[in-house]
Amino acid sequence: MQPEVGDIIKFKKGKIKYEGIVIPSPKKDSIIIKLSNGYNIGFKKDSIEIISVEKKEKPKIFSEVKFEKNKGLPEISLISTGGTIASRVDYEAGGVRWLMKPEEIFFMTPELSNVVTFKNISSPFQIASESMTFECYKILAKEVANELNSGSKGVIITHGTDTLHYTSAALSFMLQNLSKPVCLVGAQRSPDRGSFDGSMNLICASYIAGQSDIGEAVIVMHGEMSDTYCNVLRGTKVRKMHSTRRDTFRPINSSSLAKIYMNGKFEKLSDYKMRNDDNEVYPDIELEEKTAIIKAYPNFNPDILDYYIDKGYKGLVIEAFALGHVPTNTINDKFSWIDPVKRARDEGIIIVFATQCLFGRVNPFVYSNGRIMEEMGVIYAEDMLPEVAYLKLSWILGHTNDYFEIKRNMLSNMANEINYRIKGGKDGL
């Protein structure tokens, strides 16, 4: 009997026996199976001895998906936007694909039905996170607010990891009067791999959204490479620090808010805004599109700033060196930032300096070049991450063009994005 995709096959390769589910092979003379540990293995067909083939019906995931509300459990909402976590193995087409319906997430993580019940499951769009735009943030903010104001105890947003921390920061500013948990969750490994991390992240996020006393936007992802616990990380003090590690998201200039385990065990690690189920959330979605991030680097020609000035940009966040430095005293004057920054300020463009060091804060009063920039009206963004400063500035510019009001708001702690007294610890430097 010839095995087909989806069949369970047993065969021998030499003296070693293998068993697994047949998955598509790119070569007709090869067979690839998925082992019970989640990993794939392949051989030439003429090199194996087939022992048995068990024909299987299509998995239930291919049929119509329904979800039922479980009374007695906390009621939350789930918003699916795409990314690795919102994908599944497709044995007919090969590889993985995004879920056709957000409800299919139950087949990937059936344990969710024992932790929470879902008031609503929606998918306003399905895109990879690198394709996120301000328009996406506005859609999400309105949908989250609607779910929370309609009675959900919390919201989970499934999202690609590449820009997960951008979205968490944007929602932290846009969701005014937020006092329920909004949990952003992703996966570093796809569900066709034995090291898939999405299920654990979802289960941990469900405990936070439905049962915790946290009242702010957070990222819930693996705290270690192993499946020990998830970190609960403030949406404005977190960054993706590794391209592939499952514990890629780390707190910056802050500690994790908490640890959450697969069994619901909760360990509080630092202070956070407390839940208040009676508050109404207001989605303040105004963002200034003409805002950008520019990275300073050696031999940078600041004439590039003229492009943004001529294109009518309203705000620029500069990833400056260390304490907030850019070249001022140079061998060749064309590399000095003084004249381009002065021109930008004369044109009314808001310029904010954040450190590209990530850990630590900017300070314009240590060296003379910092004082020069501060005297021209550059705003120094304390210990904010450049990405957070960018989204905060975009949000503020959506409401005012007054320099002094912008500066006051940039230096005010709106969503715990500023740590006025950075403490050391095992979570950071």
From TrEMBL:
* Sequence ranges assigned to domain GatD N-terminal in this UniProt record: 4-50
Q: What is this protein called?
A: Glutamyl-tRNA(Gln) amidotransferase subunit D
User: Per the similarity annotation, which family is this?
Assistant: Belongs to the asparaginase 1 family. GatD subfamily.
Species for this entry: Candidatus Methanofastidiosum methylothiophilum
| Ranges in coiled-coil conformation | none
**Annotated catalytic residues:** T84, T161, D162, K240
UniProt xrefs under SUPFAM superfamilies: GatD N-terminal domain-like, Glutaminase/Asparaginase
Task: Give the main EC class.
Answer: ligase
Tell me what gene encodes this. gatD
Asparaginase/glutaminase C-terminal domain: residues covered? 292-410
Gene3D superfamilies associated with the record: 2.30.30.520, 3.40.50.40, L-asparaginase, N-terminal domain
Q: Which GO biological process categories is it annotated with?
A: amino acid metabolic process; regulation of translational fidelity; translation
Q: What is this organism's lineage?
A: Archaea, Methanobacteriati, Methanobacteriota, Stenosarchaea group, Candidatus Methanofastidiosia
HAMAP family for this protein = GatD
